[in-house]
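User: tokens in, sequence out, please.
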């Protein structure tokens, strides 16, 4: 059946998607025929939010936007019309969007995937096309290793995917669960560093040695028998212990490419201090430099942030570290059409 392509007259559409944290890979060895597999969750620290209407005739932005970001957005729009929207007449195509907020680039927060999915969902909604998120991801070259950003775009929450098999087009989702509403993450962001990305990332994966099968086995064991049960039972201590051990195994492997267990040595020193205070759940998201510490409540997060800020204030070398408190997001991307807001998919529930 031919799908509609014409936008609804006088309609303004806005799509917003949360950042995501990537907490580790399940299997970098690939001995069973599946590669990567990922653990992660949606967080409310940052959002990518774009809008458009028939009145949008040029790139408009509420925030400063670099030329490279402008070019990336233009490329994604063109890619949409070359793939998913190739049947749309040229006179109906949209060339620009309005930018309201963007997830920071190369910080480990999934900025590239969320930007692509927001643009894909924005344009498909504009043209009244019903396209699954996985199809948008495939058409816009996302999900080649991790499916966390795709799954959190759909429904938020805490996600585990099985990575890519020989026939996979995007990573297969295994588990999606609401993140405990009372838990908080203290996020540490280093404004002087960026995580490995682009061709450097591709080369890093090619040059690193084979991941030991016993480490993949250990990570899968920790995930299935400690991390996920602790999440469901809301046991922050067991959850944190599992996260930290998974991170240690992954960090050791990537250390030659990123200069150590963590990309930012300033953040590494603050995580070590948090460990001395008794915190167990610490992680770097993807290639970093963003890291996080899991806490059981807003009050505990506030106290920890106060302790860390004192250390930052006392050491000039830590002056570029920003601390944020974040909660999990248990709903998918939101779509606002002429002031009426819906979530793309169902909220994840316990």
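Assistant: Sequence out:
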């Amino acid at each position: 059946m031919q799908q509609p392509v014409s936008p609804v007259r006088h309609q303004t559409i806005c799509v917003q998607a949360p950042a995501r944290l990537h907490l580790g890979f399940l299997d970098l060895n690939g001995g069973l025929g599946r590669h990567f597999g990922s653990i992660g969750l949606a967080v409310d620290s940052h959002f990518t939010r774009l809008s458009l209407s028939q009145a949008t005739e040029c790139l408009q932005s509420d925030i400063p936007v670099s030329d490279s970001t402008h070019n990336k957005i233009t490329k994604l729009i063109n890619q949409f019309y070359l793939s998913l929207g190739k049947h749309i007449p040229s006179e109906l195509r949209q060339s620009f969007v309005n930018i309201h907020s963007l997830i920071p680039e190369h910080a480990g927060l999934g900025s590239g995937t969320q930007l692509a999915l927001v643009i894909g969902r924005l344009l498909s909604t504009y043209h009244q096309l019903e396209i699954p998120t996985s199809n948008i991801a495939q058409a816009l070259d996302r999900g080649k290793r991790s499916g966390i950003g795709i799954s959190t775009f759909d429904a938020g929450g805490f996600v585990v995917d099985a990575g890519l098999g020989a026939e996979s087009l995007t990573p297969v989702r295994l588990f999606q669960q609401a993140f405990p509403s009372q838990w908080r993450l203290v996020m540490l962001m280093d404004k002087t560093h960026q995580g490995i990305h682009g061709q450097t990332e591709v080369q890093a994966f090619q040059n690193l040695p084979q991941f030991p099968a016993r480490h993949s086995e250990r990570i899968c064991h920790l995930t299935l028998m400690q991390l996920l049960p602790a999440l469901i039972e809301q046991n922050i201590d067991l959850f944190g212990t599992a996260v930290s051990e998974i991170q240690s195994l992954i960090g050791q492997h990537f250390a030659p490419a990123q200069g150590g267990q963590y990309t930012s040595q300033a953040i590494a020193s603050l995580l070590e201090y948090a460990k001395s205070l008794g915190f167990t759940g610490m992680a770097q998201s993807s290639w970093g430099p963003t890291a996080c510490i899991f806490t059981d409540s807003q009050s505990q997060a506030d106290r920890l942030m106060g302790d860390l800020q004192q250390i930052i204030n006392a050491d000039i070398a830590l002056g570029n570290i920003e601390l944020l408190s974040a909660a999990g997001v248990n709903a998918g991307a939101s779509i606002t059409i002429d002031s009426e807001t819906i979530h793309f998919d169902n909220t994840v529930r316990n």
